[in-house]
Design brief:
Blueprint lengths: L18 H5 L18 H38 L11 H24 L13 E2 L6 H14 L6 E5 L4 E5 L11 E6 H6 L2 H16 L1 H22 L3 H10 L3 H51 L1 H30 L3 E2 L2 H11 L2 H13 L11 H11 L18 H17 L8 E2 L1 H22 L22 H47 L16 H42 L8 H19 L2 H21 L6 H24 L16 H5 L9 H36 L10 H6 L1
Parallel strand pairs: 2-4, 5-6
Antiparallel strand pairs: 1-2, 3-4
Helix pairs in contact: 2-3, 2-7, 2-9, 3-9, 4-6, 6-9, 6-10, 7-9, 8-9, 9-10, 9-13, 10-11, 10-12, 10-13, 15-22, 16-17, 16-19, 17-22, 18-22, 19-20, 19-22, 20-22
Length: about 750
């Protein structure tokens, strides 16, 4: 085994290092002072003692159960042969089954208990492994922290894209009896923390390195718990085969049913062992976290520990937001080239109200019996009891420890994409993340405009009829501005009432879906329970009654909603009329707005014609989901099968119709595929056969993407509307009430 990397105390001579990077080596001078030694707490010692006992007991109990079953099979096979002589003729077959049944049951139970021990482990993710030659300062920094906390130097330093750092055995169980350790650093930590905060995180992980016995015991007990969890919950082809054998001749299947029952009972017994293992290992892991926190606190200080904990929570929230951003980018065939930078950009966009919500979330968190980590509040309180300023202070960004952190972050991001997409990953889809975020920012401006123009009250279920108003020449600008003010006042007055009507309209949509579900189940031959729907829909008469009452409600709502919708449509159409009829000389920037408005209005009109078809897809898909749920309880009848087949054909027809109707309308935004059409974007793959999987995937994509694109297009139109009104020297409309805006 090779020795650990040597420390680097000064910039390597003769290497091509930037002046800024060379200057960063002075951070090492601040790490010469070791921290005060930490003492193991009573709780930690207790955890190690209990885990040590359980580490021996759990495998023994597990193997003893197997031995008991094997002995029972052996005893039965040797001592109960007289069963075979107890019957003649036709009864001989049953006697044989009675004799063989315990042997079969015992054998299957033993196999089910043993198979988790031989299950294939998942392939670990590919990590970016660093060398001292690549990152001399980082390795020297790590070596100094290890020395300060009296922990062994890791044999390997690797990077991933998690908001976390971890200490682990480099080769699993084969590294347990040596200091063959790996430090894995999440690049978002480097992007979003100061050097002092980052040093504290590393000291925490090296605190785990220093927990020699605890780290090894916790690894073993977690491995045992994993085996038990697999034995209790893992289902595979063996389970499927038992279910299939249960459907054979009753003269034989009773043995299989007994086998399934005994397997279930065995799993219940193992379930108890599993929870005992989880309970004790979780307790020890929490104590280990408190112990490692003391290393962090004594290196970077009690208050810095609190700041780091809060920063980790903020980065975790930003990580989730960044994943959503990547999903948005990928909708248009692009991926950001620097995931850590995207996370950090999201953190920096958090306003004070968002940060306060995150802090409130932290305060509400508590640690349960089966949690492996204490809550942040408990950890911060423990760190503050240390009441220390720490021995290391440096407020520079942690990225200064890397020779070229941006290049490193790009590399780890590409590794992440390769793991997610495999061989299908297209390097051409990777774009500069700042460019993509700017596109996203511009798109968000349109959503803000939509919110103001509609006062937070708009539903894609109720599309407007849009088209530029024909105005005389020259355009009556003053009259148009006056009319727009009147329409805006009408919209602001009616928004709250319209929002309530829209909610009730949505409720009628839910009722229509339930009618569709009930009718389909009845058609498939199922008896509808009274409590499945509210009100009950157990027969066709009740379905017809609800359908008729729903239509009556819609007629009433239609009359109430129309004035608001007409005012909104007139406002937008009037601004479009002004835009289309003034000249470029009169309205600087008109040409750009005219192009956007033309493209968006064309797309809006085309998609408006498909709203009813999309609603039909939604209703049928909800019915399909309920039908499949009921069919899963047993083998479907021929009537059920025919009903299912007919519904699939209907869905396929609707999908193909929507794609065909929108095949000539170009996608209105900047997509990586310059020639993509709206129909192709919404229904990307043609469901050409009766395979249910592709149909479901296509429907789910349509139901997710159609409203999103439809609202985005309408938002762009609202943005153009506001630009025209600004040119007319009208102020932006008032922001809608907060609650209504969030609901929208």
């Amino acid at each position: 085994m090779s020795p650990p990397p040597a420390a680097v105390a000064a910039p390597p001579v003769g290497q091509n290092l930037s002046p800024e990077y060379r200057q960063s080596f002075n951070v090492l001078k601040k790490l010469d002072e070791p921290i005060a030694p930490t003492q193991l707490t009573f709780g930690y010692r207790l955890g190690i003692g209990v885990v040590s006992v359980l580490m021996v007991l759990l495998p023994l109990i597990y193997l003893s159960l197997i031995a008991v079953v094997l002995y029972g099979v052996y005893y039965h096979a040797v001592n109960h042969t007289d069963i075979l002589l107890a019957a003649r003729g036709r009864g001989a077959f049953m006697a044989l089954l009675v004799y063989l049944a315990p042997i079969f049951i015992g054998g299957v139970v033993v196999i089910f208990m043993l198979k988790p021990l031989f299950a294939k482990t998942e392939e670990p993710p590919t990590l970016a492994v660093l060398t001292p030659e690549q990152e001399p300062l980082l390795f020297a920094f790590v070596e100094r922290i290890c020395r300060a906390v009296n922990a062994p130097m890791p044999r390997e330093i690797a990077l991933d894209n998690q908001v976390n750092a971890s200490a682990s055995f480099r080769r699993g169980v084969w590294s347990m009896f040596s200091n063959d350790l790996r430090l894995t650093i999440g690049t978002p930590l480097v992007a979003g923390m100061t050097t002092q905060q980052f040093a504290g995180v590393l000291a925490h992980e090296f605190g785990h390195f220093a927990q020699g016995a605890g780290m090894r015991l916790s690894y073993l007990i977690r491995t045992i718990s994993h085996w038990l969890t697999a034995a209790v919950y893992q289902r595979d082809n063996w389970d499927a085969q038992l279910v299939e054998w249960s459907n054979t001749d009753i003269r034989v299947s009773w043995v299989v049913y007994l086998t399934r029952g005994v397997v279930w009972l065995t799993r219940r017994a193992l379930w108890v062992l599993m929870y005992v293992g989880h309970l004790v290992s979780s307790y020890l892991l929490r104590q280990m976290e408190f112990d490692a926190d003391r290393y962090e606190t004594r290196l970077s200080g009690s208050e810095t520990f609190a700041q780091t904990s809060q920063r980790l929570t903020q980065l975790s929230v930003a990580h989730s937001v960044a994943l959503d951003d990547l999903s948005d980018f990928y909708r248009e065939g692009r991926l950001g080239n620097n995931f850590p930078k995207l996370i950090n950009m999201n953190v920096n966009k958090f306003d004070e109200s968002t940060l306060e919500k995150i802090r409130e979330l932290e305060k509400q968190q508590t640690s349960g019996l089966f949690d492996t980590h204490p809550s942040n509040q408990e950890r911060i309180a423990s760190a503050r009891r240390e009441n220390t300023a720490g021995v290391f202070r440096d407020d520079r960004p942690a990225s200064v420890l890397f020779r070229d952190f941006d290049a490193t972050a790009v590399h780890t991001t590409l590794l992440f994409y390769r793991q997610v997409f495999g061989d299908a990953f297209d390097w051409k889809s990777v774009h500069d993340v700042e460019e993509l975020v700017e596109k996203q920012r511009v798109a968000n401006l349109a959503f803000e405009s939509l919110n103001r123009v509609t006062q937070g009250s708009y539903s894609f279920m109720r599309p407007l009829t849009l088209g530029a108003v024909k105005l005389p020449t020259p355009v009556p600008v003053a009259a148009a501005a006056k009319k727009l003010l009147e329409l805006r006042a009408t919209i602001e007055r009616g928004a709250a009432g319209y929002s309530k009507c829209a909610d009730r309209w949505s409720e009628t949509g839910v009722a229509r879906v339930e009618v569709a579900q009930s009718c389909l189940l009845q058609k498939a031959g199922f008896k509808i329970p009274k409590n499945l729907f509210n009100p009950p829909l157990t027969n066709q008469g009740q379905c017809d009654a609800l359908w008729n009452s729903t239509n009556q409600k819609r007629e009433t709502l239609q009359a109430e909603m129309t004035p608001y919708e007409e005012a909104l449509a007139k406002r937008i159409n009037l601004t479009l009329g002004v835009l289309f009829h003034v000249t470029d000389e009169e309205f600087p920037g008109r040409e750009l707005l005219y192009g956007i408005a033309t493209r968006m209005c064309g797309s809006y009109t085309a998609m408006r014609g498909q709203v009813e078809a999309v609603i039909s897809v939604r209703e049928r898909f909800a019915a399909l989901a309920l039908l499949l749920e009921n069919c899963s309880d047993g083998v479907p009848s021929q009537v059920c099968f025919d009903t299912l087949k007919g519904l699939i054909e209907e869905l396929k027809g609707l999908l193909l119709g929507i794609r065909a109707d929108l095949k000539d309308r170009k996608y209105p935004f900047d997509h990586a595929n310059k020639e993509i059409r709206i129909g192709e974007f919404l229904v990307s793959e043609l469901p050409i056969d009766e395979d249910l999987g592709p149909i479901i995937a296509a429907v789910e994509r349509l139901l997710e993407e159609f409203p999103r694109l439809y609202i985005r297009v309408f938002g762009q139109i609202c943005w153009v509307c506001e630009q025209v009104e600004t040119w007319l020297e009208l102020p932006l409309a008032a922001e809608p009430p907060k609650a209504e805006a969030e609901a929208s």
